[in-house]
Amino acid sequence: MTGRLTKLLDPACITLSIQSGKRTTAINEVARLLDGHPSVSNFQGFYNELLARERLDTTCLGNEIAIPHARTEHVQSIVLAIGRSQSGVHFENCNQTVRLMFVLGTPKSNPGAYLAIVSSLCKLIKDAAVREALLGAATPEEFAQILTAAEEKILAPA
């Protein structure tokens, strides 16, 4: 199914301890998890476009969540890195504190798949119980399992 977040989850691209409390430094910290990813052809180009998009408008969704993202020619397929901060990262462009950050890169040629992933992510994280479970996950593997279980529950036929 298009838009399956589960297919993008890789514990190696999840950090549960963002060190920086500043927006651009924290975005860099999470995005760096994608440096060397086989689908990222030019990490610096991707990162520059990520920051350029962030300057245009906030990527904060509320509920201590942000989805910094870029549609770029520097990725061949959708990539995802996730960061969690216990103390929070200040996003001054929206005056919010973010504790969960989902960094997405998507090919310019595939906006539909990107929109499906963002839609799935928004459905999952609007659930307060899922957010609390993600904030309490002990390992990147557990974090991925929580997202996978939540996605399966949402996609299960009624």
Automatic annotation (TrEMBL):
Residue intervals of the PTS EIIA type-2 domain: 7-150
Keywords for this protein: Sugar transport, Transport
InterPro entries tied to this protein: PTrfase/Anion_transptr, PTS_EIIA_type-2_dom, PTS_SugarTrans_NitroReg
Domain of life: Bacteria
Alphabetical list of Gene3D superfamilies matching this protein: Mannitol-specific EII, Chain A
PROSITE patterns, sorted: PTS_EIIA_TYPE_2 (PS51094), PTS_EIIA_TYPE_2_HIS (PS00372)
PANTHER family: PTS SYSTEM FRUCTOSE-LIKE EIIA COMPONENT-RELATED (PTHR47738)
Protein name as it appears in the record: PTS glucose transporter subunit IIA
Organism: Termitidicoccus mucosus
